[in-house]
User: Which sequence fits this backbone?
């Protein structure tokens, strides 16, 4: 019976689910007989735990890894760099520093996703575990920065000031450090606090499940509710409302593509690609639309040229 916090259904049915890298290492050292099928051979094992369909590691047979998502991540990186540049250029815009931080963290998650889901590294290696743990920390931090941007938009505190930036970066550091530590502890069982429970094949970790599966969706929901309220009730503008609604739709479609289409695409292409590239494209599109929404409700420069950059 599946319990709350079990990763087994996700690691078995969703190709390229990155957090499975953590459980692979844990099983490899404490219950290696549970690694069967494609996961039994560490040299060619795909991302996942005994996956029904998985993309073999680069160099195994004719495998070139998760090539579609590698390309999608590779193309997303310069796009996000451009967004950071354009955001930094808008010197008088409200929340410029906070939004730039959001884009920077998203850039890190895309770069790490390319490695942790690209089937480059051998399963069970310490390098893959550390990179996956950092990836998990970056994803959790990303959604804090998203909420932080919504709070800045309410103007409860003045953006770009110590009263805004100190708690913003402090909480980002807490989310990053806590999630990375929990992820490493799950994989390496440094302590018994976050060690996956029994039975081992359930891949059970409530803390990791809440942080990587529940928190992102909850944070995104809070963000979009706050921003739509600000735009509709405070600013009373239509175009930004359309942008934020579109970004929310793209975010939901990315999750649906990842969780519902990945296995179908993987089966249909004989484990050559999966739906992760569609999710990456949609996520990056959502980030672009968020920039357009923010641009539509902010100013480029101060009116007084004496204070212009």
Assistant:
């Amino acid at each position: 019976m599946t319990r709350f916090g079990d990763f087994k259904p996700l690691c078995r049915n969703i190709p390229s689910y990155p957090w499975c890298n953590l459980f692979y290492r844990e099983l490899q050292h404490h219950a290696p007989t549970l690694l069967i099928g494609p996961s039994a051979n560490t040299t060619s094992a795909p991302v996942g735990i005994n996956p029904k369909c998985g993309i073999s590691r680069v160099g195994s047979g004719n495998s070139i890894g998760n090539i579609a998502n590698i390309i999608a991540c590779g193309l997303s990186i310069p796009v996000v760099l451009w967004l950071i540049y354009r955001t930094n250029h808008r010197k008088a815009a409200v929340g410029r520093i906070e939004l730039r931080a959001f884009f920077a963290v998203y850039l890190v998650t895309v770069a790490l996703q390319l490695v942790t889901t690209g089937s480059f590294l051998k399963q069970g290696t310490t390098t893959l575990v550390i990179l996956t743990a950092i990836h998990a920390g970056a994803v959790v931090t990303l959604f804090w920065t998203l909420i932080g941007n919504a709070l800045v938009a309410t103007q409860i505190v003045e953006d770009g000031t110590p009263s805004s930036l100190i708690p913003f970066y402090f909480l980002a550091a807490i989310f990053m450090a806590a999630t990375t530590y929990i992820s490493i502890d799950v994989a390496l069982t440094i302590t018994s606090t976050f060690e996956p429970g029994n039975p081992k094949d359930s891949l059970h970790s409530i803390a990791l499940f809440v942080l990587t599966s529940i928190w992102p969706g909850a944070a995104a929901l809070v963000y979009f509710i706050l921003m739509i309220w600000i735009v509709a009730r405070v600013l009373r503008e239509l175009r930004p409302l359309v942008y934020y609604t579109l970004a929310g739709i793209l975010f939901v479609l990315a999750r649906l593509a990842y969780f519902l289409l990945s296995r179908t695409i993987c089966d249909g292409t004989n484990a050559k690609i999966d739906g992760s590239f569609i999710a990456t494209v949609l996520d990056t599109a959502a980030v672009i639309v968020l920039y357009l929404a923010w641009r539509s409700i902010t100013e480029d420069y101060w009116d007084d040229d004496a204070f212009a950059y």
The two ends are 61 Å apart (CA to CA). Residues 301-309 have pLDDT under 50 and may be disordered. The chain has one domain: 8-48+60-299. The chain is about 65% helix and 0% strand.
